[in-house]
């Protein structure tokens, strides 16, 4: 007979432990009891549900089908009231009795409500306007009530209270946070950090904060009318949320005779004190005097527990009969010690915890000590209260023992790592707090050890992600679903993506769909181009009809770009294949209006042009005139229907600030004016822009020419950047970036004349246009293809295709038409008709 | 059903917004010749759905690229649904029911 495993508590720790047991092949009849009426959900995300960032549906970790698929009997809405350790039975609130061979207690915690007069209504539980913040039901009730009320007071200024306060702002107009201690988050932060945080919360979020505020009474008989503090202050409100801490749920253990202090006491095997068959995991467990209130420790505990409970069950892979005698041979040894060549069961040694606040725009991370404790603890501290920044690190015996970041989390990942692993610290301690230049801090995935934790919410390591990819899951979203990486607070998503990409590396392992040029046509770019040529497909609809089957909205723009590149003047332009920006030659903005950026080659303009722009802006009441980061002028907030008139009045060429296309060439003043200039960067920049204006590509192409290596035009960080060097020479850098990614370009070639620069630029861009993936900028494409290969093709013509590249670029340049000339007659009916007033404006009464 | 204009007001494969009885309705003309009508305002952050790109199944809002089913108005990306309206073409005239 299979052993019976019973789990009390169907929350994050209980369900995760069962998953770990299943992953180890644990062969049990599993029954779970959960007090809440749901499957297991991600409690952490309740903050986001309250804040309206996440849907309820998105937070479920194990829905009911998961239990069915894994043959787990789940009793929702049933509370276990007592355990009979001798008869090995649990007794449910529904009158049921269930026998077990192994028992896991994972009852979590409950919200702690201090004794406040008026919080409870005798016989009815909480006063109707008073809420705690622990479960999905709490959250739903709070949202429903808050929506119909106006002012909330949140009692408790810790992580949970702050997240509750922020979330409530989503539903009602005014929130006050009342905190009993002298500063916010006092368990994690020192006084100064807490004060800095308070200023940010008040100024940036508009939440009123009261510290040293001991709530003594909730006022109002039928409905909440306010709260009263110990000093007599009364704060009017109609909703009260109590977030004053949590208490482990230990009643069931206590009445059943288990050892309970603050939590249920466990040994290093996660077994209840002196119990052979009862295990405890999660917030209800007390291990070496510690009770945890965060999820990361639970994951570690779950693994240890699962290993141990399985070890008592299965002694070796092929043994049919369960081994009930309890020999300690574990199948997978997680964190176990290896004594004398025999695997003994796993042990848990406690966790180092770090926390982050999940409030958008308010960065707080903290770990370990908040201030030095010993005389020889090193303290580094930096405060810039005006910007809301406070940071410190505390070092003991060369190891990081504490750190606080408020207002600037850029070093959080590195610090958390150093703290959790006890890594050696840099000699220049300031590097712990600041990026001091030098190579980019972003660690290469290759160098990360396999056991490094990537997702700190769900405890997923690089190794686990790699295993998932190796197990056949090839997409980022697939790996996220399978491992839960990135499904907690979400801050690690970019890293998860990088790791999955890395693990997918090399064309063999790649998921075919990931290599398609666009999702709707199952072919990588080179194959697609060959097929397009073979069938002479010159329109987007003909590509779908011949190669793709159903038309796909998300593939149209990429195909339009590709076909235009391939066929230049012969391309059959179907307007519906264009993104709105390309239909109306302007960039759509958040309110549905558009921005207009006239060409200003090399950033050089004239008084006459400036006057014209000024007049147009005035005549059309343009809401904002702004200098762009691309050295030209942007007219923002133009309604769609006004675009043709604005262009007509400007009578200038389009600057193409809206397309996946050649954008700008930034220049510096160069040798004509600058005392350091060694090349005429301005003239070369203008010539480049003149020639390659508006050419479409897989991604934006931004260039720069700078007159000397001082690099005032930022040429080292452009898709293609040209730097004049002494001796009449020019260096060409490619694949640089200073946007979402920062990368210094690779030196492609050093040439002796502007003419050569122009030719190599065209050839490089054409090579990129032909082989870059859709939306792949050069900063990704150049390292993917490799600068040596690119140099071989573009500079040395090693593949003999230089002439073809040049010819294709010539054709593209020849086919260029200024789109703003298309204005007298709309290209399609209603091309410039408004699609809607996004904010519905009050209508002016029309007189008959 | 109310007449709102000619089907030729909408280029093939695109959408246009019409004001019908004080409501803004985005009408799309699919490449197979059929028409669909949805409420014109994107439930996400108010984007103009008629400016989105479409295929036979979905419209992709131009602002943040979430997608909605053209026939039902249901979100294909976990957002709120949009209202869908019955619409038909009769002798090149567009009719919509609000
Ligand atoms: C207008 C401008 C900001 C400004 O006021 O200065 C701007 C505005 C936008 N940028 Fe930018 N970028 C502007 C210069 C830059 C620069 C600086 C530059 O060009 O020298 C960069 C860094 C260089 C680069 O391109 O990497 C830059 C990196 C980005 C990125 C990140 C690209 C990346 O892969 O790293 C995006 C997002 C994207 O492309 O997906 C972006 C996207 C955008 C979009 C188009 C967002 C969007 O999709 O709607 C913004 C349009 C706002 C609007 O309402 O019109 N913008 N953007 C600048 C126009 C320059 C111009 O004259 O053409
Ligand atoms: C709003 C909010 C935000 C949070 N944010 C973060 C964060 O950003 N990072 C972080 O690390 N942690 C966060 N936490 C804490 C995290 O959610 C908890 O650490 C975690 O849920 C604890 O897991 P658990 O399984 O021990 O307890 P729980 O998830 O509470 O699960 C226990 C379950 O057992 C049930 N139960 C209790 N007693 C019985 C019984 N006798 N019989 C049957 N069932 C019973 C309960 O109903 C509950 O469903 C947050 C918590 C909240 C409430
Ligand atoms: S940085 Fe660029 S994309 Fe971001 S808000 Fe500014 S203009 Fe928009
Ligand atoms: S406004 Fe439509 S997707 Fe954001």
Automatic annotation (TrEMBL), chain A:
Q: Does this UniProt record's set of keywords contain Flavoprotein?
A: yes
* NADH-rubredoxin oxidoreductase C-terminal domain location: 354-422
Q: What class of enzyme is it?
A: oxidoreductase
- Domain BFD-like [2Fe-2S]-binding, by residue range, is 454-501
For the ligand ([4Fe-4S] cluster), the binding residues are 668, 674, 708, 712
**Which PROSITE patterns is this protein grouped with?**
NIR_SIR
InterPro entries under this entry?
BFD-like_2Fe2S-bd_dom, BFD-like_2Fe2S-bd_dom_sf, FAD/NAD-bd_sf, FAD/NAD-binding_dom, FAD/NAD-linked_Rdtase_dimer_sf, NasD-like, NiRdtase/SiRdtase_haem-b_fer, Nit/Sulf_reduc_fer-like_dom_sf
TM region positions:
none
Keyword Zinc appears in the UniProt entry: no
**Residues holding siroheme:** 712
- Look up the record and name the cofactor or cofactors this protein needs: [4Fe-4S] cluster; FAD; siroheme; [2Fe-2S] cluster
Pathway listed: Nitrogen metabolism; nitrate reduction (assimilation)
Q: Which free-text remark accompanies the cofactor?
A: Binds 1 [4Fe-4S] cluster per subunit. Binds 1 siroheme per subunit.
Give the UniProt record's GO annotations in the biological process aspect.
nitrate assimilation
Q: What is this protein called?
A: assimilatory sulfite reductase (ferredoxin)
């Amino acid at each position: 007979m299979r052993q019976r495993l019973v789990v009390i508590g169907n929350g994050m720790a209980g369900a995760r432990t069962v998953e770990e047991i299943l992953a180890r092949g644990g062969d049990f009849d599993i029954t779970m009891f959960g007090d809440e009426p749901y499957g297991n959900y991600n409690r952490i995300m309740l903050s986001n549900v309250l804040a309206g960032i996440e849907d309820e549906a998105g937070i479920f970790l194990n829905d009911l089908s998961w239990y069915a698929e894994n043959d787990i009997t789940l009793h929702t809405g049933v509370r276990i009231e007592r355990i009979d350790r001798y008869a090995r039975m649990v007794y449910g609130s529904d009158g049921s009795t269930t026998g077990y061979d192994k028992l896991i207690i994972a009852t979590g915690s409950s919200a702690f409500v201090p004794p406040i007069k008026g919080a409870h209504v005798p016989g009815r539980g909480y006063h109707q306007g008073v809420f705690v913040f622990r479960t999905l039901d709490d959250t739903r009730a709070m949202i429903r009530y808050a929506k119909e009320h106006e002012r909330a007071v949140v009692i408790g200024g810790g992580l949970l209270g702050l997240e509750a306060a922020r979330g409530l702002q989503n539903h009602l107009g005014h929130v006050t946070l009342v905190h009993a201690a002298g500063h916010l988050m006092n368990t994690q932060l020192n006084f100064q950090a807490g004060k800095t945080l308070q200023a940010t919360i008040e100024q940036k979020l508009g939440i009123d904060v009261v510290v040293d505020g001991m709530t003594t009474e909730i006022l109002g008989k039928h409905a909440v009318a306010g709260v009263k503090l110990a000093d007599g202050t009364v704060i009017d409100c109609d909703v009260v949320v109590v977030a004053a801490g949590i208490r482990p749920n230990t009643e069931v253990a206590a009445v059943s005779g288990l050892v309970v202090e603050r939590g249920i006491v466990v040994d290093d095997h996660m077994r209840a004190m002196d119990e052979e068959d009862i295990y405890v995991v999660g917030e209800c467990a007390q291990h070496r005097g510690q009770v945890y209130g965060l999820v990361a420790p639970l994951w570690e505990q779950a693994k240890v527990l699962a290993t141990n409970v399985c070890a008592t069950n299965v002694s070796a892979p092929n043994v049919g009969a369960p081994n009930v005698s309890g020999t300690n041979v574990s199948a997978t040894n997680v964190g176990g010690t290896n004594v004398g060549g025999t695997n003994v069961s796993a042990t848990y040694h406690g966790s180092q915890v770090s926390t982050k606040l999940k409030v958008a725009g308010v960065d707080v991370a903290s770990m370990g000590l908040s201030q030095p404790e010993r005389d020889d603890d090193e303290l580094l501290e930096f405060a810039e209260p005006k910007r809301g920044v406070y940071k410190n690190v505390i070092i003991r015996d060369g190891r990081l023992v504490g750190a606080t970041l408020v207002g600037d989390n850029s070093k959080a990942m590195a610090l958390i790592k150093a703290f959790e692993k006890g890594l050696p610290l840099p000699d220049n301690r300031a590097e712990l707090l600041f990026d001091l230049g030098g190579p980019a801090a972003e660690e290469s995935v290759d160098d990360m050890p396999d056991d490094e934790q990537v997702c700190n919410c769900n405890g997923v390591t690089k190794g686990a992600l790699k295993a998932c990819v190796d197990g056949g899951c090839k997409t980022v979203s697939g790996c996220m679903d399978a491992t839960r990486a990135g499904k907690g607070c979400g801050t690690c998503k970019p890293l998860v993506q990088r790791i999955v990409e890395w693990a997918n590396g090399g064309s063999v392992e790649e998921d075919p769909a990931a290599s398609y040029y666009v999702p709707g046509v199952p072919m990588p770019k080179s194959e697609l181009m060959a097929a397009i040529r073979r069938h002479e497909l010159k329109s987007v609809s003909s590509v779908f009809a011949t190669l793709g089957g159903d038309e796909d909205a998300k593939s149209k723009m990429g195909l339009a770009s590709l076909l235009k590149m391939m066929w230049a003047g012969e391309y059959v332009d179907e307007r519906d294949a264009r993104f709105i920006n390309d239909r109306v030659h302007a960039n759509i903005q958040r309110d549905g209006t558009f921005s207009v950026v006239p060409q200003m080659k090399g950033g050089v303009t004239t008084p006459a042009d400036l006057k014209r722009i000024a007049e147009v802006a005035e005549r059309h009441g343009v809401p904002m005139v702004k200098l762009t980061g691309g050295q030209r002028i942007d007219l923002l907030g133009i309604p769609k229907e006004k675009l043709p008139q604005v262009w007509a009045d400007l009578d200038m060429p389009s600057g193409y600030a809206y397309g996946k296309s050649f954008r700008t060439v930034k220049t510096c003043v160069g040798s004509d004016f600058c005392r350091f200039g060694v090349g005429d960067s301005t003239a070369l920049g203008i010539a480049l822009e003149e020639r390659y204006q508006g050419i479409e590509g897989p991604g934006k192409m931004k260039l720069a020419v700078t007159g000397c290596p001082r690099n005032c035009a930022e040429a080292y960080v452009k898709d293609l950047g040209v730097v004049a060097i002494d001796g009449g020479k020019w260096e060409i850098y490619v694949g640089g970036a200073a946007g979402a990614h920062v990368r210094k370009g690779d030196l492609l070639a050093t040439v002796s004349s502007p003419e050569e620069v122009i030719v190599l630029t065209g050839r490089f861009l054409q090579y990129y246009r032909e082989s870059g993936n859709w939306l792949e900028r050069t900063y990704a494409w150049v390292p993917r293809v490799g600068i040596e290969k690119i140099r071989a093709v573009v500079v040395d013509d090693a593949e003999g295709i230089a002439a073809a590249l040049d010819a294709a670029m010539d054709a593209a340049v020849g086919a260029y038409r200024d789109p703003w000339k298309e204005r007298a007659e709309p290209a399609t009916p209603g091309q410039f008709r408004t699609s809607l007033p996004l904010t519905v404006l009050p209508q002016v009464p029309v007189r008959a | 059903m109310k007449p709102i204009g000619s089907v030729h007001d909408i280029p093939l494969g695109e959408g246009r917004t019409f004001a019908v009885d004080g409501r803004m309705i985005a009408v799309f003309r699919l490449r197979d010749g059929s028409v669909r009508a949805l409420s014109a305002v994107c439930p996400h952050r108010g984007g103009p759905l008629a400016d989105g790109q479409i295929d036979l199944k979905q419209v992709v809002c131009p602002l943040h690229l979430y997608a909605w089913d053209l026939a039902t108005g249901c979100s294909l990306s976990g957002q709120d649904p949009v209202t869908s309206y019955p619409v038909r073409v009769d002798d090149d005239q567009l009719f919509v029911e609000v």
